[in-house]
Structure formats: structure tokens, C-alpha cells
Amino acid sequence: MSTDNITTLRQDLKAQIISHLNLEGRTVESIADDMPLFDEGLGLDSIDVLELIVLMDKHYGVRIADPKQGREVFQSVATMADHIQANR
Amino acid sequence: MEGMRILSTTTYRNGRFTVDGKELASSTGDIDQDLTNAWAAMKVELPRFVRMDRNSKLVSIAAAPFFTAEGIITKYPKDRIGMVIMGTHGSMETDQRYLDQLLAENHASPGLFVYTLPNIAMGELSIQHGLHGSGLCLLSEAPDVGQLRDACEILLRDHDMEAVICGWANIFAGSAVATFMVVTTGKEGNWDNDELERIFNEHG
Amino acid sequence: MNSERIAITGMGAICALGNDVDALTRNLIAGTRGIKPLAHLDLGFPELHFGEVALSNAELSLRVKELLGDMDAPLPRSRTALLALFAALCATRKTLDEQDTVVISASTVGGMDLTERLFTDRRAGDMAQARDAAEHPVGSHTSFVADAIGSKAMHTTISTACSSSANAMILGAQLLRTGRAKRVLAGGSDALCRFTIEGFMSLSAMDTTGVTKPFSNERNGMNLGEAAAYLVMEREADALEAGRQPLAYFAGGANRNDAHHQTATSPEGKGPYLAMHDALAVAGLGPDEVDHINAHGTGTDNNDVTELAAMERLFGKVPQYTTTKALTGHTLAAAGALEAVISIICMREGILPVGHATDEAITGHTAMPVAQTIRRPLRNVLSNSFGFGGNDTAIVLMAS
Is residue C199 within 8 Å of B116, Cβ to Cβ? Predict the structure, then answer.
């Protein structure tokens, strides 16, 4: 996949994360590709993992069967984008 | 014989937020902006707040003044602080948002589903402050001061609680109302059913 | 505080394991399991297993009318309310005058099962009307129950998720002990509906492979169930004076908050530990005097390991325990009361039923649940009900 497409995918993901998780006051620009999504960083929690799993399935057709696997996939927007590319 | 003693009272009436009669925030007419403003007035650092549903925000706001550095409840052990929260609609507003999304988009949001229970607001409050006491969440058509009194008294006298956060919180159809108190037992009880009926039913 | 015993003098229940207390008793003794795919409710999910009550709403309505002795009685249409009415009327059958009976009922679903049906039956624009339907609020079923049994006393609705009806019993006992009530009908009801099923699916909390396997390393979620259960509670002296023999005693209970996460229990099970500890203290029982634990045991990854951790910390040597949620499903707000009824049946019959038999304990732990039906006398049962929002409750029932 071309660099442009990766960039677009990452930007799209950021926008979707903000809207799906109701992150008031967050802008796409404020989320770095490698920013940790959990704990420090964006401060998401285990329920947010479940929302992101649904997001990935609905928007990209990529299923994550085991929520425990979720923590690795959802470490950052970059890892999410990589996982989508590899599995869609 | 000891009486029921109210140490502090907060009220929230569609944006007008008072602590022991002193106004901390006023109404803008926008329910979400009002909640944001009232919380900001408390100057509490809690990233979780913006992620909560309105019900949990309202309960967090109404109880926040009790937990400031000089807060009236901070001298009590965290496993001896109880809660009795009563309302009419409970989590109905969030229930409807969740159901709308489920039926219209075939999407069940786990983040919304979690809040489709009236007592989650109490849970959020317990997590915020590390409270391990006893709690009751009651549903009633209107504020029932008698029931609130009974419940508080039972928690204080029969369940080893030393202080109880007791109140009414209801958010539904554009209206957000809460009246919270810290209740203990003490030599001079000041619980006055009539006075409380007036306060609980007064609309700001 | 009055130290007089609180007697349970009536009980009514309906769940996947039996359409009334007699059927429930027979099935517990026979080792029957009540969890299977849906047969009556048209909710979808053909691949999932549930603890469904084996009656349609029409059949339920008929039975309620029979109990009311009025085949023309107007009835609510919500399944939650119908289940509640049936169980409440069964529980109060023997007491002739319920005017003074305080009703404390619990639900999480309330009329939601009806609302979601109304929505799909109508155009989107009528959604507002559907919502305003009188049965939608969680508290509406309590009013139906109070009216049906002829109560003129106070009634109240508790909604603390899965610990709700256990909390209803604790509050009921305290109202009786402090002389604020003469008699209490305490319990709860929750019906299966899409709202709940989809919600727990979205939390990855359901066992999608079949029947739940609680307290085992193979566990991967819960089965949802539906039920209603109510217990009549009175001061022992009042019961005996009216010629009613106690079926069991409510020896006390405690509710504590885990204060960790909205849906997950702390790793060490702090809330469960405190609730069990305090419940035993109220009941005047030492840990070594507990004969049996009816565990919360939902079969989820988090609940079972944290509940086990709490039990091991409190007891050292954990009493024989089981989870009947493997037989009835997780009946949410009704669970506390239903499992109190089951515990009383177990004490009456001298039986410890199997929930799910496992041949090894959860990794890192030692105590395993009962693996085969045991027949032995039981003097008491500790019953756990832990709800979302960290609302953790334990109650103690004693044999009469």
C-alpha cells in the first residue's frame, strides 16, 4: 500500500476514534500516530477496546476474536493501521 | 438518643449549582454546557469526567464539594461512607440513546451499555474517591424524604456507616436536578422532613 | 436493634429451571439443566444459549389471571412485569391479607422488553410514543405487583444491577427489624430482551460456544437468563402468631462497593471480600461455620477468578460452593432473590447441586466448585450477588 494511503488510513482512524468514543475537545491533529492510546496518552480503557473492536469490524471488516489480543492491536493509531492493512 | 444530622447540602437546578447556599455556577440554558461549567467550578482533575454519561456527570458534580481538600466528608474512613441516591428516570436517557443506536444502526455500543444502569453513577463516584461503603439506588416517582431518611438511618445505625451521601438526582428530557447532602448521626439532629421536602421539590 | 429473627414465610419463583417453586425443586434434585437455545422468544441469536422461561407471554398472562382469579383482569404487556406478577402472586398465596405488605422490587430491564418490541412494530416517528408508554420505566413493574397483591403500604424499586434483589432483601429485613414494616415482599424480575443480549455481547461477556463453564479454566463468558422471584419476610413472632411456619431465616447481609471499575471487579476481589465478611459478621457466623456458598459465578473471565480470590482470602479453606447460574443463566436483577429461593430449597432438601463440574481449579487457585450432586444437611447458605458499578452484596440464609 502506498504511503499516501497509509497516511489517509491513519487520519481516518483518528477521526473515527474521536467520534466513536466521544472524545470531546480532541482534534485529529492532537493524536500522534505513535501516541499510546491507553493509560497515559489518550487515556482509553478496557471498555474502549471493545468499542474499537466493533469499529474495526464495521468500518474495515477486520475481526478481532479475543479482546485480550485487542491491547496489542490498539496500542497506537499506527499499530491499528498496520493491523488493518495486514488483515483486510 | 442521637439524631440525624445534615452537615452540608448541594443543589443543582438546570445549571444553577449551589453549595450550602453559595452559588458556584449559573445556568446557560444548554444542559451539557451547564454540566461542564459546574464541574469546572470544582477545579477537579479527572480525565474520566468527559467520557461519562450525563447521569454520572450530574452525580459527580453534586457530590464533588464534599470531597475537596477541606471537604466535609474527607475526615471519614473511605469504607464507612455510604450512599443513598434516589431518582425517577434512573439511566433512562442513556437507555434510550443506546436503544436508538441499537435499533436504528444495529450497533450496540459497549461504552453506552455500561451506563444503562441507574447505579453506575454511584459506581463512578466510588471509583473516583476509593469508597468501599454500602450503597442503595432507589427509584421513585418523586423525592421521598421519608424513604431517604429511613435508608440513611439504616446505613448509619445498622450497617456501620459513619457518613452517608444522600440525595436526589434526576436527568431526563432536558431537565437536570440534584439535591445532595452529607448525613451523619449526632447529638443534635437537624433533619427536618418539611424543610427537606421544600428544598427537594424546589425548582431553580 | 431488635435481635428477633427474620423469617421467610412465602416464596415464589419462575425461571428456566422451573415454572414454579415445586418444579424448581424437582429439577434441582434431578440435576436438570435449564440452559439451551431460545424456544419461545423471537429475539434471534440462534447460536447462543439462554436460561429462558419455558412459557410465552400469552401463557404467562393466562397463569397470572388464574392466580388473580379473574380471567378478564387487565395485565401489563411487558414480560418483566408478567414474570414479576406471577412470582409475587405465588409467594403471597398463603397470606390472606397483604394490605400492610411493603413491596421492595428490583429490575434492570423494566419495561424495556416491551419498548423494543413497540419500536420495531411501529415507524420511527412513533418512537417517542413508545417510550412514553407507562410500562417503560423500571419502577412500573413494582406498582403492578403492589396492586395485584392488594398492598396499601409503601413500595419502592431498587436498581443496582445484578445485586438488586439481594439488596431488596437486606433493606426489607432492616425495615422489619426497626419496626418500619410489618411484612415485606422482596424480590425482583428481569426478562430477556435484545437490549441486554446485545449489550453483554458488545462487552464480550457472553459464552458464545454453549453452556457456561464457571470457575474453570475453560470459562469464556455467561449465559443470560430471565426470572422473577419474591420472598415474604416477617418478624418470626408475627409469623408464628399468624400460624405461618418459617421456611428459612434471613440472617443478614451486607453491601459494599468495590470501587475499581464499572464492569470489572478488582483483582483481589475487595468488594466481594468486604461484602461476604460483613454479611457473616451480621449473621453471627464464623467462616468455619458456613456450610455452603451460592456463588455469583457468572462464568466470565473476571468474575470467577476475583470471586475465588476473595473466597480464598476470607475462608482459607473455602466451603463447598456452586453456581446455579450454570442451571438458570444469569438472571440479572432477579438473581439475588432467585438464588435465595434456590438456597432455601437446597437447605430444605439437603442438596448441593452441580453448576459446572470441572476437574481442575482456576490456575493459581485451589478451591473447585461442587463436581457432583451432594446430599447432606445444610444449616446455612452464603449467597453472593455482584453487580456492575462495583455494587457487591452477600446474604446469609439459615435453615428453619
Answer: yes
